[in-house]
Amino acid sequence: IAIALVALFGSQSRSLSQATEAHFNVAAPMLASGKLAELVAGTETPNSDEGDFGEDFPGYRWKIATDTAGFDGSEVLINLEELENPLQKVELTVLWSDSNFQYVLTYYGRWQD
To answer: Distance between CA 60 and CA 97 in Å, rounded?
Structure first.
């Protein structure tokens, strides 16, 4: 009986872990897409920032890192940083509580200052 219970509890633990990961894998892309839509709808260039998703999604946080987009390589015809309105790289990360779960969404766009 003890051997059967150990196997049963191990299986239950793995099932719970997989259900938690599945929940994150569904919620995080939805939250990241919503936050990105807010940024794209705005008129200002997004700044590096962080925050949470409020009471509707407790434990979920977001971070934004922005930088001027660039290319690796020597065959670049135009220096993107010299453009009047350069292409921006926005990296949006969704984190969940103190877990190791994170979802990263990278977006390239141009904003008017």
So the answer is: 6
DSSP codes of every residue in 42-79: SSSPP-SEEEE--TTSTTEEEEEEEEE----SS--SS-
Residue 46's nearest CA partner among 105, 112, 95 is 112
Nearest alpha-carbon partner for 52 in 39, 44, 65, 64:
64
Rounded Cα gap, residues 51 and 105, in angstroms:
16
**What average pLDDT score do residues 3-23 get?**
83
Identity (one letter) of the amino acid at 59? Answer: G
Cα of 29 vs its chain's centroid, Å: 7
* Mean pLDDT, residues 76-87 taken together: 62
